[in-house]
Every structure is written in C-alpha cells, then in structure tokens.
Design a protein that fits this description.
mainly alpha, 68% helix
C-alpha cells in the first residue's frame, strides 16, 4: 500500500506540473492574441480550461486519503480530455512545418506580434500535454489496481465495507 500511495503522489505531482506548464504556454499565447485583437480559436480556450481543471483536481487528489487512490473515473475522464487537447494542438501545429531551425522573428498565425522560437514553444506545449495525458492514464491504472487488490483481499482489515455498513456486527 505504501508503494501505491507513493506512486499516486508522484503521478499527481507530475500531472500538476505538466498542467501548470501547459497553462502558462497557452495563457501566454492567449494574451498575445488578445493584445493583437485576434480571436485565438476555441482549441486554445479548451486546452486552457482542461489545464485549469487538471490543476484543481490534482491539488484536491494530492490530499493523502484513500479515496484519492480510487478516483479512476475522474482519471480516465481527464485522460480523455487531455488526449482531445493533444489532438487539437497537433492539428494546429501540423501546418506550421516546424523544422530543426527557426526564423529570427516568427509570428503566430493571424497576428503581427513577434515571438521567440514559436516551434519549440508549441512542441513543448504538445509534449507536456501528452505527458499529462499519460500520467492521468497511469493514475487510472494504479487506481484500478488498488481497487481490485482491495476487493480480492480476504483480510477484513484491508477490505472496504459497503457504503451502508458503518461497522462489522
């Protein structure tokens, strides 16, 4: 049980860090688009909302309670949200033709605001989006493993009681 709690803590911390990085990159992009008076597109707003939900949920699930290890429906839902966000960002980055070199003053499509190193910034956002999705999937698998291990246990001190039983009689 100690290893599962430690792994859960590591996964939740990684989810939080990845979400903060993605939120920062996408938030900067939204700020640049707002300053240029250009609508950024719903894919970035969606990604920012998913990052915000991840930050909130991972902070809540970092609290060391047993129910935090068994929240696999939330883990699977967040995995799906991040995979959709990953696909939306890939669809946006694909036409940019990012290569190993970068121009001196690249701009965001639709804006006249120069930014530094557009391709590496978007690749970083894409990488941390994927990392966050995989961490949520790993958390879901860990939670499923913990739940099945608890259900299979014959020791009455390890098994969970039904919701309507407050104690053994």
């Amino acid at each position: 049980m100690v290893i599962s709690r430690l792994l859960g803590l590591i996964f939740r911390t990684g989810e939080l860090i990845s979400a903060v990085i993605v939120a920062g990159i996408i938030g900067h992009y939204l700020n640049v688009m707002d300053n240029a008076n250009v609508y950024p597109g719903s894919r970035f707003i969606y990604t920012e909302v998913v990052a915000g939900l991840t930050i909130l949920l991972s902070i809540i699930l970092l609290i060391p309670f047993t129910w935090a290890l068994t929240a696999f429906p939330a883990d699977l839902l967040m995995f799906l949200l991040w995979i959709v966000s990953f696909g939306l960002l890939v669809d946006y980055i694909a036409p940019m033709n990012c290569t190993w070199y970068v121009g001196w003053y690249p701009t965001y499509p639709g804006a006249n605001a120069p930014v530094d190193d557009q391709c590496s910034t978007w690749k970083t956002a894409l990488a941390f989006t994927f990392i966050s999705a995989m961490l949520w999937l790993a958390s879901a698998f860990l939670a499923i493993w913990v739940v099945t291990r608890v259900r299979r246990s014959r020791d009455p001190t390890v098994r969970r009681r039904a919701w309507y039983q407050s104690h053994y009689v």
